[in-house]
Design a protein that fits this description.
Blueprint (H helix, E strand, L loop, with lengths): L4 H19 L8 E3 L5 E3 H17 L4 E4 L3 E4 L11 E8 L1 H6 L5 E8 L2 E9 L4 E6 L4 E3 L2 E2 L12 E4 L2 H6 L3 H10 L2 E3 L3 H9 L5 E7 L1 H4 L2 H7 L3 E3 L9 E6 L4 H10 L8
Parallel strand pairs: 3-5, 11-12, 11-13
Antiparallel strand pairs: 1-2, 3-4, 5-6, 6-7, 7-8, 8-9, 9-10, 13-15, 14-15
Helix pairs in contact: 1-2, 6-8
């Protein structure tokens, strides 16, 4: 399993650094533009990722870095090293919120070893919330342990989702309608926040139709160490596309619901 204490402390510090850089631009009209995929990027994204990359290069020069803005490289620059551990960085998860002045955004720093996300830190300065975890070391919010809140029935569950347009675009509207009809309550808390709300026991299910590794890596150990599950929409380990996070006890029921609705990517 390994002892990830050093890497966890580093991830916490790196996420805090990126969050400080980004927060200095928050609600101060940072320069923004649309990327080719239609998502926003700001000068704060670039500056925060650059500072985190410098910190990684000094501390773990033999590792790789995958960042949302600058892609996959060796820690010190140049082509990635085959098979090396990879730090995965999302300088501002929730950039649309950031641009709009909504405080639900965070800097995410995770460590991926092979196919496993083993360390994660999530620093949300405008919310005053910091989450972290490493395999075998538990999960915390603001240095206090967190655990999921298991429920046995969807009818008792708080369900979180990203915006309905993302489900429409992914052909998941029938599934979304059925899920919301069966749950107790629902909220539209997208990006990192929905997943960590499940980890801390404030909600029970979080679904997003389309994510990248930098959106997921840091969150996987936080949810897992809190007793929950993160998978793809088919219930298999997440590799690309949609992600399902639950308190664990409801996971198979939601995967089955996806399959019954004929959802793209659902289990068959």
């Amino acid at each position: 399993m390994g002892d990830w204490s050093r890497e966890l402390e580093f991830a916490r510090d790196a996420a805090a650094l990126g969050a400080r850089v980004a927060h200095a631009h928050f609600r101060r009209a940072p320069e923004t533009r649309r990327k080719a995929d239609g998502t926003w990027v700001t000068e704060a994204d670039w500056k925060a990722e650059a500072q985190i990359r410098l910190r990684i290069a000094r501390a773990f020069p033999e590792h790789n870095v995958l960042g949302e803005e600058e892609g996959l490289t060796a820690a010190g620059g140049g082509p990635a090293v085959d098979g090396a551990p990879t730090w995965v960085v999302d300088p501002i998860d929730g950039t649309s919120n950031f641009v709009a002045g909504i405080p639900v955004w965070a800097t995410l720093v995770g460590l991926r070893v092979g196919d496993d996300s083993v360390v994660g830190a999530c620093h949300a300065p405008a919310l005053g919330e910091v989450y972290d975890a490493a395999t075998g070391l538990g999960a915390r919010m603001n240095d206090e342990p967190v655990r999921v809140a298991p429920v046995d029935r969807l009818g008792d569950a708080m369900v979180l989702t990203s915006g309905p347009e993302s489900f429409f675009d992914a052909g998941l509207t029938p599934f979304l309608n059925e899920l919301l009809a069966r749950c107790d309550r629902s909220r539209g808390f997208g990006d990192f926040w929905g997943h960590v709300l499940v980890a801390r026991g404030a909600a029970h299910v979080m679904v997003e139709p389309s994510l990248s590794l930098w959106d997921v890596c840091a969150l996987e150990p936080i949810v897992a160490e809190a007793g929950g599950r993160v998978t793809g929409l088919d219930g298999r380990p997440w590799s690309s596309g949609g992600a399902l996070t639950t308190c664990g006890t409801l996971h198979d029921a939601v995967v089955a619901l996806l399959a019954d609705a004929g959802a793209p990517g659902g289990a068959r």
